[in-house]
Design goal:
single chain, alpha+beta, 41% helix
Length: 165
């Protein structure tokens, strides 16, 4: 397996020179769906660990919204590079935020989580109000880190950038 395949999301594995690579170069090579998340949010970090447990095929790659690659992907999709109010699912040229991003991710997972996709029948405004309520209180309920924590090895292999090594 080559280090380049790691960074594009085609395979999992180590690589420690990503911190020297241009975020635009990494973004150009992405070939799998990427989930951008709030790297300092404890709820987001716990959810990411759960997602990995139910993504047996390794379909998704990850990047903190605050990371250089995260900011590059936000900008490429017309979002403010300081947009931290929602997870963002990047899938090819398309992107999804809030409840739609979460439910689209659930649809692709193993186990019972794809059943949650049925919530797409709930009007988006209602779903997003619930999403926003949880998001508005996530730091008070779940806490936050001062910086993105270094993930364990299993999770780290799924990140677009390996600058956390």
């Amino acid at each position: 397996m080559s280090g380049d395949a790691d960074r594009t999301g085609d395979t999992a594995g180590g690589g420690s020179d990503d911190d020297a690579r241009d975020p635009a170069e990494i973004a150009d090579e992405i070939q799998r769906p990427v989930l951008l998340f709030d790297g300092v949010c404890n709820l987001c970090n716990r959810s990411l660990r759960l997602l990995v447990k139910f993504d047996h095929a390794g379909r998704f790659r990850f990047a903190p919204l605050q990371s250089p690659v995260g900011k590059e992907l936000l900008t490429r999709h017309g979002l403010d590079s300081d947009y931290f109010d929602s997870i963002v699912l990047i899938d090819g040229d398309d992107y999804y935020t809030k409840s739609e991003a979460a439910l689209r991710v659930c649809r692709e997972l193993d186990g019972p989580l794809p059943l949650l996709y049925a919530l797409m029948a709930v009007p988006e405004g209602v779903r997003d109000r619930v999403y926003d309520f949880v998001g508005d209180h996530r730091y008070q309920v779940f806490g936050r880190k001062e910086a993105c924590p270094v993930p364990d090895e299993e999770l780290r292999q799924r990140f677009l950038e390996r600058s956390l090594d």
